[in-house]
Write a structure and sequence with these properties.
alpha+beta, single chain, globular, NADH Oxidase, five-stranded antiparallel beta sheet, 9 helices, about 210 residues
């Protein structure tokens, strides 16, 4: 698929068929993710792949309330059929360590030196490469957040080390022919490019 077609067709898929995903495709998506840029080439990311039914089930058990599990809503019904869940994780420590090395000129690990948390940003860019690879392979994918109240359960269930923080989760699978939960693009128009792209200076009329 041409790159522009990948960009145009990328969307968050929330309803999956119970069809296995080729492991080679999952591996390709993960390899592409590691091609994302990272500050100082810190590569402070980790990707937890859940592609066994028991592991996927444990993920949903850890991230949903018991009453929801007994009566799943439309979103959960469609999402939980995805045969693969990937948890992209960031390591702030890896970035602080990297920039305390001699070639970076800093002599400490002071987090205040960072204008924004690049460790999260870089893993976000890696996650986008997974989403784009899914489109290129004819699959569906969706990035979504892990409820803060359930993060400890996820860490415990999958032995995620303290050095890494899951920034969300990505479902991967074959889109189901029937529609699942509707996403925001079905209710909200995409903002015109002229409204969000500014050249030379921020246009006052667009504030």
């Amino acid at each position: 698929m041409e790159f522009q077609d990948v960009v145009r067709h990328r969307r968050m898929v929330r309803n999956y068929a119970e069809t296995p995903v080729d492991p080679d495709v999952v591996d390709r998506a993960l390899r592409n993710a590691t091609r994302a840029p990272s500050a100082g080439f810190s590569q402070g990311w980790g990707f937890l792949v859940l592609d066994q039914p028991d592991d996927v089930r444990r993920f949903w058990d850890a991230t949903t309330d018991p009453e929801t599990q007994g009566a799943p809503d439309r979103w959960l019904q469609g999402m939980s059929r995805a045969p693969v869940v990937v948890l992209p994780c960031s390591s702030k420590a890896a970035y602080l360590d990297r920039y305390a090395e001699s070639d970076k000129g800093w002599t400490d690990r002071d987090e205040a030196r960072w204008p924004v948390p690049f460790w999260h940003i870089d893993v976000g860019m890696a996650s986008l490469l997974i989403l784009q690879t899914a489109v290129d392979e004819g699959l569906g994918a969706c990035f979504f957040g892990i409820p803060p109240a359930h993060e400890a359960k996820v860490r415990e269930a999958f032995a995620i080390p303290d050095r890494f923080d899951p920034i969300g989760a990505i479902t991967l699978g074959h889109p189901a022919p029937a529609e699942g939960a509707k996403g925001s693009p079905t209710r909200r128009a995409r903002r015109p490019a002229d409204d969000v792209i500014h050249r030379g200076r921020w246009a006052p009329s667009a504030e």
